[in-house]
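Limitations
The structure tokens in this dataset are predictions for the assembled complex, not deposited experimental models. Users should treat interface geometry with appropriate caution, especially where small molecules or nucleic acid strands are included. An illustrative entry is reproduced here so readers can see what is and is not provided.
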Amino acid sequence: MSSGGHYVGLIDRYRARLPVTDETRIVSLSEGNTPLIELQNLSNDVARECQIYVKFEGLNPTGSFKDRGMTMAVTQALSEGAEAIICASTGNTSASAAAYAARAGMRSFVLIPDGKIALGKLAQAMIQGAVVMQIQGNFDDGMRIVKEMAHAAPVTIVNSINPYRLQGQKTAAFEIVDALGRAPDYHCIPVGNAGNISAYWTGFSEYAGVKPATAACAYCDTDCVFDFAPECDSRPVMLGYQAAGSAPFIAGSMVDDPETVATAIRIGRPQSWDLAWAASRESGGWFDSFTDAEILATQKFLASSEGLFCEPASAISVAGALADIASGKIPAGSIVTCTLTGHGLKDPDTAISQSAGGVIKVAAESDAVKRAILENL
Ligand code: F0G
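Predicted assembly:
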């Protein structure tokens, strides 16, 4: 598929490290290859301490990191002859599943929570032709039902319990190491269903030539991917951050009624519980939580000080990095990377509601506009 150096997606780029063959029909929207952007406008203290980079996954084709996993999961589903895929979702997985199903000519069924879904994500799933089922429950209820459907209906699950999802998502770690020319010292990431932190750990480990104790390998039980020469000589410490109202990794047990403004990570029963704990433990990392107010303040800071508009759930990775640098848990001089998992345009309501006063009503006359400029310089 690749021709003349034209980028055609992460499966093509990292083909040797992914479960595909030359015959596989790849379902791709040229996902991946997202920028790693250094934060420049932090307060001097923090800026002096460390270099902080964000991996802006909102620039994937459907606006979130889910496309990395979905290209792999739908490619695999198609190669197995599946005609339909299904997922439970807080929004982004459903948007991505709908897009890749459309691309593959498959049917997609998505279960979303009643109410609590960002408008942009709902719009994506709808226009991309998914059968959207709004269940009277939350993500965890949806996940339970989807797992039951695996035996009840001819549908392939494309939530991150599908190991091919994690295989695709691990490529974000490869890209970070490729961009920096080394592994970061710390990697900060939002945690909801906990697939992504597990995928990053798999990717960082694979690139360092180290087999994680709990490998999320999709295609065999051997160490085949570790036949490669290592691309780097270390792995980062993995830091997972959760919303205070939806923080099972802080509670140490599942949470029944998760609640947060960061609806993407409004999850009480993460499916990749063991893998995420393994990533944290093996890397010497930790979990922490932040309030909705802290999450929104960081989202606004990134948008208004750096020009980086991410969704609330994504901002928590930077909230965590800044807090842990300030407290000294992340030592001065560290190279820190943070995943901005989704684009801010996904959730316009939340952005507008915290930008009150941002629009000035002005008469359609030069004088009035001039006055408004001078008053706001
Ligand atoms: N950030 C965003 C924007 C997300 O959409 C999600 C998960 C996460 C972070 C957390 O990643 O689940 O791998 O720990 N969204 C899923 C969904 C649950 O349905 O779109 P995770």
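Some entries come with short summary sentences. For this one: The mean pLDDT is 94.
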